[in-house]
Each structure stands twice: as structure tokens, then as C-alpha cells.
Design a protein that fits this description.
The complex is a heterodimer of chains A (about 120) and B (about 120). With about 120 residues, chain A is mostly beta strands. Chain A contains no helices and 13 strands. Chain B is mostly beta strands and about 120 residues long.
């Protein structure tokens, strides 16, 4: 089955700096890669996702890049703010047509943004 | 997006007892999932709740311990049976929802925090 490795496990940055979280996956059939943000005591919230037909996707201060050859994808957060502090999870799945199967999650990254 | 509610939000139970967690969605969804998240850990899929048929369990999870029902396209229950302290965790319901014209997106419920004494 799929295995997703996520690094780093913790990341501390100063407000305004950029943060990068990286994930690698094992199953070459995986083609859907969402990122979730989980604030303390809250549910995971989808913040961005990417499918294998594109190499990069941006949404304001957040971007995700995908390298299918190397089987890794990354989350980039620019101009970080204290409210970006949370646990971030990457995930991978195989999507066929308009649906996808079960998500396999990475271990999570605790991001702390210091004012 | 789909609005998901779970009951109870938290509970403290004695070992050997069982707890049933309910998940309600405000719209019909194709697939519903149950996850476990132990303190400080990632999300682990317990099973996929299939409407009208038995749930599909992941390796390490069995029906006798985690029976699941899904009587319709908006509701599911997960029972944690014969509980032990190792079952203390957050249990999350999750659904795949398709907004009109788009592909599926997976959303999570607020979770049920279970403590077993």
C-alpha cells in the first residue's frame, strides 16, 4: 500500500518568513495530493490540493508543488503569520475520473510562527 | 462544502464498556470514513462505511471491535466495543463530497474525544 513520509516534524519560523514542508510517497499510481491544516482541538481543514496533471498550484500565500518523477510534493507558505501556526498534514491517494480512494496521511508537521 | 456533525463530542468511559459515535451530514455523500487520531499523531483510517453493505476495514481493525453502520447516505455510526485505555483517542468521521461540477473533496467532522479509564 501507499506510504507517505513527511518532513520536518516540527518547524519554527519568524513572522513574515517562508515555510516549506515536504512529503514523499511510495505508490507511483497516486495522483491526488491534498494538504490539511489542523489547529489545536479542531478538525483537519483542507487548505489546498494538487492533481498529477499539474506541477504547481497557488492560492494566495499558499502553494503546492509536485514532482511525479521523484515522487515528492511540497507545501510552501509565504509571508507567514501567527495564525498559520498549526499542524499540517499531507496525504496521497489514487483518483480515477472524478473520485478518489482512501487517503494515506503523512505524520504531520507542527508549524510555529513567532511574532 | 458538506457540514458534518458528530455526537458525542467527548466522553469518558469505563473499560469493558462500548460507545457508539454518530456522524450526520447535511447532504448525501458517496463515501464516509472513520479515522482515529491518537494524541499528537496522524490520522489513521479505521474503515470505509459503505451504504447498504458491510464496512471495509483497514489492516489492524476488525468488525467485532469497531462495528460500523451506514443506513443511508447521510448518516453513519461507529461503535468502539469492549473498550480499554488504549482506545483513548479522537475518532473522526470524514466524507467525500462533490460540489456541482467539481471532483470530490474530503471533509472531516469535529471529532469525538474518547477517554477510557
Amino acid at each position: 500500500g501507499e506510504n507517505v513520509e513527511q518532513h520536518p516534524s516540527t518547524l519554527s519560523v519568524q513572522e513574515g518568513d517562508s515555510a516549506v514542508i515536504k512529503c514523499t510517497y511510495s505508490d507511483s499510481a497516486s495522483n491526488y495530493f491534498p494538504w490539511y491544516k489542523q489547529e489545536l482541538g479542531k478538525r483537519p481543514q483542507l487548505i489546498i490540493d494538487i492533481r498529477s496533471n499539474v506541477g504547481e498550484k497557488k492560492d494566495q500565500r499558499i502553494a503546492v508543488t509536485l514532482n511525479k518523477t521523484a515522487k515528492h510534493f511540497s507545501l510552501h507558505i509565504t509571508e507567514t503569520q501567527p495564525e498559520d501556526s498549526a499542524v499540517y498534514f499531507c496525504a496521497a491517494s489514487t483518483e480515477d475520473g472524478t473520485s478518489y480512494g482512501k487517503l494515506t496521511f503523512g505524520q504531520g508537521t507542527i508549524l510555529t510562527v513567532h511574532p | 462544502s458538506a457540514v458534518i456533525s458528530q455526537k458525542p463530542s467527548r466522553d469518558i468511559c469505563q473499560r469493558g464498556t462500548s460507545l457508539t459515535i454518530q456522524c450526520q451530514v447535511d447532504s448525501q455523500v458517496t463515501m464516509m470514513f472513520w479515522y482515529r487520531q491518537q494524541p499528537g499523531q496522524s490520522l489513521t483510517l479505521i474503515a470505509t462505511a459503505n451504504q447498504g453493505s458491510e464496512a471495509t476495514y483497514e489492516s489492524g481493525f476488525v468488525i467485532d471491535k469497531f462495528p460500523i453502520s451506514r443506513p443511508n447516505l447521510t448518516f453513519s455510526t461507529l461503535t468502539v466495543s469492549n473498550m480499554s485505555p488504549e482506545d483513548s483517542s479522537i475518532y473522526l468521521c470524514s466524507v467525500k463530497h462533490r460540489a456541482s461540477g467539481y471532483t470530490d473533496t474530503q471533509y472531516f467532522g469535529p471529532g469525538t474525544r474518547l477517554t477510557v479509564l
